[in-house]
Amino acid sequence: MTMIEQAPLTAKREKSRAWEKLKASRSALAGLVIILFFVILAAAAPILPIPDPVATSWSAIRKAPSAAHWLGTDDLGRDILSRMIWGAQASLMAGVFSVALAVGIGVPFGILAGYFGGWVDLVISRITEALLAMPFLIMAIALAAFLGPSLTNAMIAIGLSAMPIFVRLTRGQVLSVKQEEYVEGARSVGLGHMDIMVRYILPNVTAPIIVQATLTIATAIIAEASLSFLGLGQQPPAASWGSMLNVAKNFLSQAPWMAMWPGAAIFLVVIGFNLLGDGLRDALDPREH
Amino acid sequence: MSRFLRLTTALAFTALTALPAAAVELKIGLQDDADVLDPAQSRTFVGRIVYTAMCDKLVDVSPDLKIVPQLATEWAWSEGGKVLTMKLRDGVKFHDETLMDAAAVVATIERNLTLPESRRKSELSSVEKVEATGPLEVKFTLKKPDVTLLAQLSDRAGMIVSPKAAKELGANFGSKPVCAGPFKFVERVQQDRIVLQKFADYWNKDNVFIDKVTYLPIPDSTVRLANLQSGDLDFIERLAPTDAAAVKSDSKLTYADVVNIGYMALYANIGNGPRADNPFGKDKRLRQAFSLAIDRDALNQIVYEGTAVGGNQPFPPNSPWFNKALPVPARDVDKAKALVKAAGFDRVPVEMQIPNNPVAQQMMQVVQSMVAEAGFDVQLKSTEFATLLDEQTRGNYQLSRSDWSGRVDPDGNIHQFITCKGGINDTKYCNPKVDELLNEARASTDDAVRKEKYDAASVILNDDMPIIYLGHQSWIWAMKKSVTGFTASPDGMIRLVGLKKG
Amino acid sequence: MPVYIGKRLLVAIPTLLIISIFVFSLQKLLPGDPILAMAGEERDPAVLELLREKYRLNDPIPVQYVTWIGGVLTGDLGISLRTNQPVTELIAQKLPVTIQLAIMSMIFAFVIGVPMGILAAVKKNTVLDYVASLVALSGLSVPNFWLGIMLILLVSVNLGWLPASGFESIFVDPVRSLQTMIMPSFVLGTALAATLMRHTRSAMLGVLSADYIRTARAKGLSPRDVILSHSFRNALLPVITLTALLFGELLAGAVLTEQIFTIPGFGKLIVDAVFNRDYAVVQGVVMCTAVGFILMNLIADILYVLLNPRLRASL
Q: Which residues of chain A does C212 touch, with a Cβ-Cβ cutoff of 8 Å?
């Protein structure tokens, strides 16, 4: 049975090799650089020599980019560069933490459903369907009313609504993987369920999860804006990229730069995470040697 | 054979008169979809725009807000304002070809008063009875003098509907409304369109130059304008002020605006539940300071591109009811700071709930930064509409942004908000003196006397300041150059009689 | 297989029941009073109270639920508080619109996403791969409203090629119906294409490196045959899962896009209904979407088996 040796083995053995591969991947490094750039920028916001992000100026309403305001000003005369930097914090957190929540809950349940099948699968899958059918809007308004407006609650709402997709993806992947010889083999040598799930199944279902996670970050950043609008998430005048986009919607022809910068930032962050995701994917894919 | 010939000639003739050359179709973009199309039950502003084309009223309102004849040709008050007699226009037909007469008016008013779902009850609450005193004469007897009734009859409460249709459809009248206006109902697809067609037997048909009207709800103002520019629409309402300049400079479009009769305001919680127990609700000096710290002109320029006007009363400064002795205050930060200090404060924390639309958010952020200079630390709480309304009614707020679309009679902009038992008094401000003045203003048929009462009330309110008035927006319309004959009216309606296209 | 499908459909009934209880109670917990919300500026307390009575909003929530479910069993989903129209009628009006928009968007998403994903995988780490990823991801990060408004300004206002917005039923005027739907479904499709493209690429990469592909290559099969017949089929699994989910989401409505192009679909209907606390409408639409999701997931599970017969035992 050469298959067992050749095919993907355990997470542990692969770890160091994966790290080497990740470091060698140029796209992963590029992605990491982009993400670090925004993270450092967000963290450094308080010490950077930039104007107050909420300071309004009636004489500088919707001014195009200039020497005084590198990225222009918004509808209240606030400096967009400064708001972009301060907003990075809220947006990155909204993106990363809500996705982490979705993955953290969704993937284990997906594995359980796919691995055990039967009643376990039935219950988990039906709950997933219920969550899918539940309008995001109702959940958001309810959370806003009961937990109050805060970025954390917004992240919970976004995370919960993104979760079902991870359950479904993981489950589908597990279904196909668990028929493979190496899983059968592991079972026949008497390994426990937990061992099989963690050591054999998990490493082989990561690819679509990584891809989906890096994509969901974009959706989450944009969703934060619609939530702040419903009374959840960042409240005005504090900035987030999503809410900046939301406001810019009304000034598309008068002040196109208001939409351009936050849009570009979201794009870059998404590219960054996707590049990193590609690298991770290749590094973790046990079949690629 | 000859009969057949006569029939075809008649048909050809009808076709010719009905469709001179090509049918003129007008497409109007509205901001929202209308609600139930039954004048007795309806409650939205856009619904009223549609009725303007479909349902004639006993009386109409002119652009300078005077009551003018429509289905009633003349009227008179008697017995000290307790009886209103109206003479009706002769030969008016409903869209189902039944006759509009005194009996129909009585049936409609009674329907408005008795239909369980009717929203017109409070508007007609002063009516004791209504009776036909002749085939074309009706008499309203009131419980107590109420001059505001005429203004109510110029709106949905005075839209006369076909008694036959009302009887057949009952509360479902809105599924196929039958009125006596210039256009009759054809079809409606929710959130998509409402189609009306010229009514051939309209009493004033010679002044109707449009054959078919389609109302399309398009909520996004940018998209509404794009549809006008691309030629998919002929006419749009509520153009965004930020697009005004673009329309004015477009040679293919016409721009029209007029200051509306409503207001934008902040409600302070004065006595609505436990949350009223805070310095801002208790000490009028803080509210006065807040108001003084706002630069209303700057607000108008920044948010409304100069299309709105600043205000400090329920009526706009250009209204005859505006108290000129209390001009809109200029910003005075020093005086505001002094008032805050006098109230014993250095910084005052205030929580303000705001509706979640971008314009309101922009405006309140400007206010937030203006009043900060006078010592107010405003925390904004963005809330979706149903929650906001609920919190406001139950008193779970400190300061709340609320607007009013405005009523033709001054009473409609003030009485129900300020009187102790007012139906929508959410601040729960209560001052017997103000109640007395506003009730007296209701009872007098003499405008000079009424003005005196409103002036006296406005002085008290300007001091107590339960409602901080911010200003008055404009209605802004844009239309193709080929559309002519439109008159901008402060009530925001789009009157199609006299309107031409092409 | 028929037994399996029958079992799944049977399980759908309790699922729907649970969803309905969940949505019903959650909406009732929302702040805001439906009668007050729809009253707008006409807030006469006596009438409001009467309406509460008429629509039985003063009953205890469990009683309201039982009343509602009783209606559902007789095919009555209640009426919209806002417009007095029966909910079944509203759904019948909007469902075809939503389905048409969903299908057309999915077509765009597939036509753009899947070939780009395959191409990117086959040409991994070349300029082509990067460009394809950039294009796909920009579709995801460009906000729908921006793309939508820009398209309207360009295609309708400047070029005059397509109507700016509005909707026509495909049964009334098929040409105009397709014309009005092209831009909105393109906007929706580009966002979904990114997801499909990235997943197709990843799954293809996984399969391309698997042993049987190597074997096939070694046996001398042409690259085209290898890619299309062997790899793609096996790469499909996550793509199918996602397609089912995305299609389900499309059925729930696309609020912003519908709003910008004034498409009278589920999105705007349910958003307005939630904001107005128009419970019967929310409930009706949610049930409808739930059925959609259940069917989509079922179809996905069946497709898994058809593509990978080894899975049959696990179902």
A: none
